[in-house]
Amino acid sequence: MKRAELIAASRRVVVKVGSGVLTSAQGLDTRRVAELAGQIARLLEGGRQVVLVSSGAVASGAAKLRPGFTPASIPEKQAAAALGQSRLMQAYEDAFAAHGVKVAQVLLTGADLHRRKRYLNARNTLFTLLDWGVLPIINENDTVAVAEIKLGDNDNLAATLTNLLAADLLINLTNVEGILDADPRANPGAELIPRVEKVTPELLKAASSQPGAVGRGGVLSKVKAAEKAARCGAATIVANGTVDGILDQLAAGDDRGTLFLPHDDPLTRRKAWIAFDSEPAGELVVDEGAVRPLCEKGKSLLAAGIVTVRGSFLAGAAVRVLGPGETVIGVGLSNYASEELGKIQGLRSDEIEGRLGYKDYDEVIHRDNLVMFDLEDEESVACLLSS
């Protein structure tokens, strides 16, 4: 599908705006906020549903406290976020009001998306806002988020929301033109990659070496977010949000930034949540004989194929499935607790009851609750699972 056709067919869009677009050492750039608000309003007028993921609270709060101040410690960053979030939302409230668009603030932590019930609650709330014609403006709740519940950065949050909302397109606005094929500091001839059909190890290497934008997310996090969205069936465009009218240009099908195409055989939303957002509590190492039936034939994981159980978890928990060599080959929801698995690993299904005194399931992980990865995609999968 051509770029213009893909954009025209995208009816639900997630727009992520980075700190480097919205802020400077002097604080929040209200002119840029107003300019983006006008463009998003035009997307809405065109019949699209839009969700905005906005960075900028920490940088805005730091400048509001003292121009040039850079918070260093976690408490300072969280306090700066508290100080800046109200300023950021007021700017959006004013900017969108000029176009008759109502906005709602939604602050999330990892716990809201890692736990299935809270994930579904968040989805219901966001769909209600969209049904009401309200623009959700979403950020990670930096004021309370700590390492254990952080989502990582707003690139990852935007990709997760793209899946949660079954969006067609993620537009990631940063302060660079897109994804380059090399580090421009080492290679002045580095060129923009206009189109990515598959994230390769070479692309990951090139992205990891490039200087990042202001904020937590760098170039690599944008590639990871695009790959995550692609596996969920959505396209991504990484483009320069400091260019006036960039959303108007993208909506018109202009060839700006880097376009990542969606996978041909995307995961369902539920399986995407299992794979990337369920927060595994343990690991199951399987033998060589179990790998290909799982990866290539879509079989369920049986106790007979398990050689090692790691972690302490209850039935229903998410676990990673590792092949020989410690390669992550899948993620799934275990029918048995770790203590039970320690007793039945290596056993045939008809031997489980004799060992436990009961047998609730033949399968340790049923194929409907199991996401297996292509063995040829080892590096891109490992990159995603380290988000």
On the 0 to 100 scale, the average pLDDT is: 89
CATH class of the largest domain: Alpha Beta
Poorly predicted runs are none
What does the overall shape look like?
A: globular
Task: Tally the beta strands.
Answer: 15
User: From the structure provided, what is the oligomeric state, counting identical versus distinct chains?
Assistant: single chain
The CATH architecture of the largest domain would be 3-Layer(aba) Sandwich
Secondary structure class reads alpha/beta
**Percentage of residues in strands:** 15-25%
Determine the number of helices (DSSP H or I, runs of at least 4 residues). 16
Estimate nothing, just give the exact number of structural domains: 2
The strand line-up of the biggest sheet is 5-6-4-1-7-9-10-8
How is the CATH topology of the largest domain named? Carbamate kinase
Distance between the termini: 29 Å
Summarize the structure.
By secondary structure, the protein is of the alpha/beta class. The chain is built from 16 helices and 15 strands.
In words, what does this structure look like?
About 40% of the residues lie in helices and about 20% in strands. With about 375 residues, the protein is α/β, with parallel strands linked by helices. It folds into two domains: about 5-270, Acetylglutamate kinase-like (Carbamate kinase, 3-Layer(aba) Sandwich), CATH 3.40.1160; about 280-385, Archaeosine Trna-guanine Transglycosylase, Chain: A, domain 4 (Roll). The protein has an eight-stranded mixed β-sheet with strand order 5-6-4-1-7-9-10-8, with helices on both faces. A five-stranded mixed β-sheet has the order 12-11-13-14-15, sandwiched between helices. The protein has a two-stranded antiparallel sheet with strand order 2-3. Helix 3 (about 30-45) crosses helix 5 (about 75-95), helix 4 (about 55-65) crosses helix 5 and helix 8 runs parallel beside helix 10.
